Amino acid sequence: QVHLVESGGGLVQAGGSLRLSCAASGIMFRLNVMGWYRQAPGKERELVASITSIGSTNYADSVKGRFTISRDNTKNTVYLQMNSLKPEDTAVYYCRALTIGAWGQGTQVTVSS
Q: Strand locations in 1-113, DSSP E?
């Protein structure tokens, strides 16, 4: 059974940092493209960043230079380092195994001004 479990969300002031983690089980993690999505209230879910099995990355324009996605295939874990956070980054952040279409349950990130 596939499980993607996010952690690391919380409340932070603007300009602060958070690191999200997503631990995967039940999948061939190293073969999956992994991604982080987010959904703010009243908005559609959007792709924030993705990373291929060999470490190639892609970012939404709104987070380039501030967020970094990485993965540790030995720990079946993907990370999202978020720096210089802004109130508009407030959302529920979801981990996704894009290759098989599996989602995590989400973790709330709230950035206060």
A: 3-7, 10-13, 18-25, 34-39, 46-51, 57-59, 67-72, 77-82, 91-97, 102-103, 107-112
